[in-house]
């Protein structure tokens, strides 16, 4: 697991940097920086909006006496989306924007729920996402 995390934290930034350099040589440095700034601002606004909506859904669930498990899961995915969008780079931005798109988020959420459920049924409470 350590090797996978180490590769993730070294390979992804390297690929992001190489892509930004390549884009910078094609469209120019200023335009590349503007793209990064625009995606950052747009992503922050979208995460904020999605987060506020999620908080309202959590409050509505609690007010009706329901456990807001699904809404909390959505909130975690929105938080992860925000982390991707705060990381400079186009690949991480793409993943962040995908997580903000509700149909894609639902697909990812269902996949993770099945993965967690199978772990619980195997009586193995530890949870790993194999990358």
Give a verbal description of the structure:
The protein is mainly alpha-helical and 131 residues long. The chain has one domain (2-121). 84% of the residues lie in helices and 0% in strands. The protein is built from five helices and no strands.
Write out key terms for the chains shown.
mainly alpha; 131 residues
Secondary-structure blueprint:
Blueprint: H1 2-27, H2 29-63, H3 69-86, H4 90-100, H5 102-121
Shape: flat
Figure out the total of helices: 5
The SSE order reads HHHHH
**Main beta-sheet annotation:** none
Spans of at least 5 consecutive residues whose pLDDT stays below 50 are none
CA gyration radius, whole angstroms: 18 Å
Q: Please tell me the total number of domains.
A: 1
Mean pLDDT: 89
Q: How far is it from the N-terminal to the C-terminal residue, by CA?
A: 9 Å
DSSP strand content: under 5%
Describe the oligomeric state of these chains in a short phrase: single chain
Tell me roughly what share of residues is in helical segments. over 70%
Number of strands: 0
| Class from helix and strand fractions | mainly alpha
Brief rundown of the structure:
It is built from five helices and no strands.
């Amino acid at each position: 697991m350590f090797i996978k995390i180490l590769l993730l934290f070294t390979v992804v930034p390297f690929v992001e940097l190489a892509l930004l350099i390549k884009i910078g040589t094609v469209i120019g440095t200023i335009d590349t920086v503007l793209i990064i700034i625009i995606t950052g601002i747009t992503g922050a606004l979208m995460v904020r909006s999605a987060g506020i909506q999620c908080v309202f859904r959590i409050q509505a669930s609690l007010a009706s006496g329901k456990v807001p498990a699904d809404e909390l899961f959505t909130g975690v995915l929105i938080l992860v989306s925000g982390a991707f969008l705060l990381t400079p780079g186009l690949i991480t931005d793409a993943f962040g924007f995908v997580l903000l798109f509700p149909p894609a988020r639902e697909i990812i959420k269902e996949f993770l729920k099945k993965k967690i459920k199978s772990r619980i049924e195997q009586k193995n409470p530890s949870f790993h996402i194999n990358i």
